[in-house]
Amino acid sequence: MSSSQPPKITTILSQPFGENTYILGIPGRSDCVVVDPGFEPDKIFAELDTQNLVPAAILNTHGHSDHIAGNEAMKQRWPDCPLVIGHGDAHKLTDPRANLSAMFGGQLISPTADVMLAEGDTYESAGMAFRVLETPGHSAGHIVFVLKSDEPTLLIGGDMLFRQGIGRTDFPDGDPAAMVHSIRTKLYTLPDSTVVYPGHGPETTIGYEKENNPFVPAT
Fold first, then answer.
1. Which of 170, 184, 169 is nearest to 219 (CA)?
2. Is the sign of the CA dihedral 218, 86, 201, 57 positive or negative?
3. Per DSSP, what are the bridge partners of residue 95?
4. Across-strand partners of 133?
5. H/E segment holding residue 55
6. Which domains does the chain have, with CATH numbers?
7. Is the pLDDT assigned to residue 3 strictly greater than 80?
8. Transmembrane segments in this chain: where (predicted)?
9. How far apart (Å, rounded) are the C-alpha atoms in residues 205 and 217?
10. Over 80: is that where the pLDDT of 150 sits?
11. Using CA atoms in the order 79, 81, 83, 84, what is the torsion angle rounded to 10 degrees?
12. Closest Cα to residue 218, out of 173, 187, 197, 176?
């Protein structure tokens, strides 16, 4: 089912938190995956319609509100599309305090997970095979998705590693020590050429961050 052909990746910026939603699709196919649908799902719908794509899965890197806000709208339009998240953050989908929406005066509730993933799992959808790494630090149940195509390896990194930055660790289940450990032992062991698609800000590479990230230097 998986393909070595690299996917086309479209980034949709969702306000008010500047969150990156990603659409990944293998050229020539009509299915795709949508990662971390944010607060402006109409933008996602418009892009999917423009590209004539139908989502085969909704992937959540973690359960914070800016990364799950579009889940409900996605499921309403495509009710059979599985919602996928790491097992450790699945409870956040339906808990406004845990998903931090209550902190900002909201009561966001997402549909429940159809699939819960753990370290070492491979999730296949739309012709792509995503390897799952558990990366606690920003949230206790955060996961990232590693996609190996011909070249380079791609990392859908959520709120772990940004260009010369890292995700916040001051939320209730954040852990600064775990964040550094996850980045050094999970992310920095990927090839230097790995392209990182983060939850906020521009893409980067593992090699660049090992050399230039002021928060988590390689050594």
1. 184
2. positive
3. none
4. 144
5. strand 54-59
6. 8-212 (3.60.15.10)
7. no
8. none
9. 14
10. no
11. 170
12. 187
